[in-house]
Amino acid sequence: MKENLKNLFKGSLTVPNLLSLIRILLIPVFGVLFYRGYILWSVVILILSGITDFLDGKIARRFNQVSELGKMLDPVADKLTQITIAVVIFLQLDKSADPTMQWFKWVFLFFLFKELLMVLVGAIMLAFGLRPSAAEIYGKVATFVFYVVMVLVIAFGPEIGALRNLFTLPSPLMIALVILAAVLTFIALLSYIPPTWKQVKEKKAAQNVKKETEE
Description:
CATH superfamily: CDP-alcohol phosphotransferase transmembrane (TM) domain
Mean pLDDT: 84
Oligomer: single chain
Shape: globular
Number of domains: 1
């Protein structure tokens, strides 16, 4: 355990890890601002969170600052941010008297379900000595689209948009954008299955070889 912790925090004092930590600290700030009705400020925080998400990966690769802790912090920050966004928008739309918004709010729980499922599967994998797969191109695209769509919804969406007095997204367009983000998120979720299954097979094969060797 001590060796694992030592390896986890080895080389962890990096700018990308600091940015990931800042992103995690911004999550409750976003939630409180949104809950208290400071929607415009919550949009600013969400944009800032997205910028730090973009920069930490770029800096890590450009300056060779990839670390084991960073590999853990980045997805944790993503998951917590997406869960918080999905929950606050769901709760906000739940107040709407518009029947369309009342059924549409349930789409946001899909994002919550996806992140909770990945957390559960990741915990199970770690318990069995497997490493949760890193985000592939599908996951990165889905995350980028999610951030852009949620910023648009919180800024210009009917019922909740902070800037809807300047411009309001037509309900059909908003619904289409969120469903697009949901479809890409589902595709990203499916993309984790092959590498995960590959790890399971490799783990099983290694155990069989070890067993045969011992016999």
